[in-house]
Input
Amino acid sequence: MKITDVRLRTVKGEDEAKLKAYADVTFEGCFVVHGLKIIDGQKGMFVAMPSRKMPDGEYKDIAHPITLELRKAITETVIAKYNEVLKAEGEKEVEAAPIEE
Output
């Protein structure tokens, strides 16, 4: 499955904010997933899938990749796009956290 477009909305605010941007990812020009989040985690930047808070307070993914390969492709593509935005704004680029198998 090929990613054909990534659109970002950066989040500006506190220096310590973990949420850096929201992403919408289009697959093969015909299916879009809105609401992915770029998060600055303990091991580095990662892409969180869109989720919903359940009545018990737990968050549950609404949509997510089934295969590790697709998760890696989404992460690499979204982080690359985020780095393009950072570079255009004159900020330092970031690296994605390793994806554990």
